[in-house]
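To make this tangible, this section ends with a sequence with its structure tokens:
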Amino acid sequence: MATSLAYGGAVASSRRLRALITNDDGIDSPGLWALAAGARDAGFDVVVAAPHVDASGVGGSVLSVREDGRTRLQRRELPELAGVPAFAVEGHPAFIVHAAGRGWLDPEPDVVLSGINIGANLGHSVLHSGTIGAALAASLHGWRALAVSLGTPAVTPERPHWESALQVLPDVLDLLLASPDATVLSLNVPDVPVAELRELREARLARFGSVQVRVDHIAGDDADDDADVLHSHAAELATPPEPGTDTALVAAGHPTITELQSVSDRPGLLDGATAARRAS
């Protein structure tokens, strides 16, 4: 059974810790600014570094635009974040995190906070998320990380409820800071007013996310361009989400928290093959 948590925690343990704030929606995303403000208000020493353009769907890519081994970045001033160092980086989110751990940031961050993503990151399809990719990259450096996503509809509303994600944030930060080094948490919050939020629930990953992508092969018939194309478009799940999964709980109005693991090995492959041969 999924566990739940009421709100109201304080993040006193975050004092003097440095937080790197990044995302995959880009430096100009209001969700990024909201998360940076929330971390600052929680007592973190905040530095913001995010892609200079939208980098959604890049997963754990460490691609950057390089000239002679150099990646450009620009200092930025973000709305209502006076005094917070901010950089627009010509690279993907995981690249930014890796750069922070390879000498760029001094001192390096204690935690990485990624988001607030426009759209939920649910199910095993989180593999493709740049928001999640940044958080998993942090774990490779031994840092705790939190990915935050707001479950907005397919058409982004004019005023997403960033404040609802920030309402849940302090309690989740307390969970994160009480966890072992390299812990990665994924928080998904429904895009509803704070008053309509239900309790925070721990959730397992659904088999897919809330939306699947269908890809159709279309033969080229344009006189100017006869190349075939692959047309990608969203397709809603045909069956209801499995109870207890992140997809089902977010749809029911619950913020969800899930601990994620990075790539790991599973020993014993040859031992199993040897045992199978002996048994045959």
User: Anything to note?
Assistant: Residues 46 and 177 are 16 Å apart (CA to CA). The longest strand covers residues 111-118. The chain has one domain: 4-206+240-264. The chain has a mean pLDDT of 88.
